[in-house]
Amino acid sequence: MTAVALAFDLGGTDLRAAIVSRAGEVRQSLTVPTRARDGVDAVLDQMASLAEKLTAQADDEIAGVGLGAPGPLDPVAGIMIAPPTLAGWHDIPVVERLSARLGLPVFLDNDANVAALGEWHYGAGRGFETVLFVTVSTGIGGGVVSHGRIFHGSRGLAVEIGHMTLSGSGPTCLCGNVGCFEALASGTALGHRGAEAALRPGGEKIAAAQSDIGRPGARAVVEAARVGDPVALALIAQEAEWLGIGLTNLLHIFSPDIVVIGGGLSNAFDLLIGGIRSVVATRAMSAYRDVVIVRAELGTNAGLVGAAGLVLPAQGVVTRGGDQT
């Protein structure tokens, strides 16, 4: 019997779960909206329910559980410290609590870290020594894999890029500060700008897209932009500018070989990349301007594949502590 992993990708919008093989194959998967505002027990109940459904279909041995979750968190202690996108999650020993529910060992890491690991080994980062993964969705997160090792920093808190300050003013972030990368350039931020534009003259196509989708959000802006709506295209250009400014800072800090963009807003990568590259070409020092920027290959599976790698590391992958398997 082959060992597989039960993987979770816990986001502020969606909770994904899957059975994943050592080769990175997603065999079965389920996605539900995260009960992000309902507290810890509600989300743990969701995870237990998904686990029950998936393991009932699995023929192989479940070796353990890999959990990619929003930071800040401590992967060694197994504690989620205070993720801004999940209400009530303050210093929660999620590894202990989830393991008790599922009866399996649980391995925790930042969601962007595990997605970076998945892309480095199986996706767009294959063959590169240092990969910077940036996820742009409900929030903004980042992970760096260098020579097969996730860069954790002290207590596993490194690369919380969504909360670096890009501006001295602007919308208030969920972390309480203003001018954060996440508050300015996340899918949520784009969705807020789109909702405001939909109420003004000229925003009719965004409003129509919202009606079709059923709610305001970044997706409505993207859909309107794809049919050439000038208001939506202006919002996309603004989004690309903020992303380009943030990425320029990250290029200077981490000097990666490649930048991989994932998350829900990566579905608009083709609309954004021209503006992003223009900003990088203008703002980055010359030595950093030729770094490759690509869309994630694993899509929404990046976090699941990477989380599974915490349980069943592929040969040659170092996940933490420097021990190579």
TrEMBL record:
Top-level taxon: Bacteria
Pfam families: ROK
PANTHER family, alphabetized: BIFUNCTIONAL UDP-N-ACETYLGLUCOSAMINE 2-EPIMERASE_N-ACETYLMANNOSAMINE KINASE, ROK (REPRESSOR, ORF, KINASE) FAMILY
Family: Belongs to the ROK (NagC/XylR) family.
Designated name of the protein: ROK family protein
Protein species of origin: Ferranicluibacter rubi
Lineage: Bacteria, Pseudomonadati, Pseudomonadota, Alphaproteobacteria, Hyphomicrobiales
